[in-house]
Amino acid sequence: MSKRYRYKFLPIFWYEMLKPTLWFTLYRLGELGGVWRPVEISTPRLAKMLGCSQQTASRHLIELERLGYIERRIERRSELVKITERGREALESVYYGLKMALEEGETVLPTEVVGIVFTGMGEGAYYVSRPGYVRQFVRKLGYKPYPGTLNLRLVSPPTRSFLERYRPIEIEGFQTLDRTYGSGKCYPVLIEGKYEGAIVVAERTHYGYDVIEVLSPYNLREVLGLKDGDKVRLVMRAKPW
């Protein structure tokens, strides 16, 4: 969206902080197409859709923007609202939950993940090799990872929100004399039907919700002959909740 949109970002990691009324407002904005493009909406119209007062509808938009779920631009008599990546992932988490609840007996979670290789920021090699993390990887995953991660831009599913439906292996943060290292979560996978590994999600990351990092005891670029732009398939081995 244009830089004229006001966008205040409050870094929160998951979505439990969002009130049910705000969830429903986000859902209504999604119904209007706000996931894909800016939609024009007035607070009287939104209030009618929500069954609340105009003042309450206005507060919902302000709060959703503050939490980073929407971007908005104020026009003379209405607003242009666009759901952010964070908002889209929040809606997808509800989508998967509803599918699990309504489609009894069917496999509704994605068991295969497809992503496109790209060169990352180079931080994976540093963090994966920290002794405080390595000890936990060996104990909890059963192997010492190659010092680096494979960066994948997701194709299917389009964001990593599906991971919320899998039971993670918790990696605890720790502190050294000079700095503090954050926690993370690992989700075991089988890479291209051959190599074990895990999707790792750091508590603090610079990547968007369409990116995952994969660690493995192998140099995946080398053993699979990968280059930027290649597709990689992962089979989920993590257990659903």
Question: Could you characterize what this model shows?
Answer:
The protein has 241 residues and is α+β, with helices and mostly antiparallel strands. It has two domains: 20-102, Winged helix-like DNA-binding domain superfamily/Winged helix DNA-binding domain (Arc Repressor Mutant, subunit A, Orthogonal Bundle), CATH 1.10.10; 112-236, Riboflavin kinase-like (Elongation Factor Tu (Ef-tu), domain 3, Beta Barrel). Helices cover 30% and strands 25% of the residues. It has helices at 20-31, 43-50, 54-66, 85-102, 123-128, 131-141, 220-223; strands spanning 39-41, 70-74, 79-83, 112-117, 150-156, 169-171, 174-175, 180-181, 184-191, 195-202, 211-215, 231-236. The strands form three sheets. Strands 4-5-11-10-9-12 form a six-stranded antiparallel β-barrel. Strands 1-3-2 form a three-stranded antiparallel sheet. Strand 2 (70-74) and strand 3 (79-83) form a beta hairpin. Helix 1 (20-31) packs across helix 3 (54-66) and helix 2 packs across helix 3 (54-66). The longest helix has 18 residues, at 85-102. The relative contact order is 0.14.
CATH C-level category of the largest domain: Mainly Beta
Rg of Cα set: 20 Å
Mean pLDDT: 85
Query: Percent of residues in beta strands?
Result: 15-25%
Could you name the CATH topology of the largest domain?
Elongation Factor Tu (Ef-tu), domain 3
For the biggest sheet, the summary is: 6 strands, antiparallel, barrel
The count of β-strands is 12
Which stretches are low in confidence, meaning pLDDT under 50 for 5 or more residues running? Answer: 1-16
Query: Largest beta sheet: what is the strand line-up?
Result: 4-5-11-10-9-12
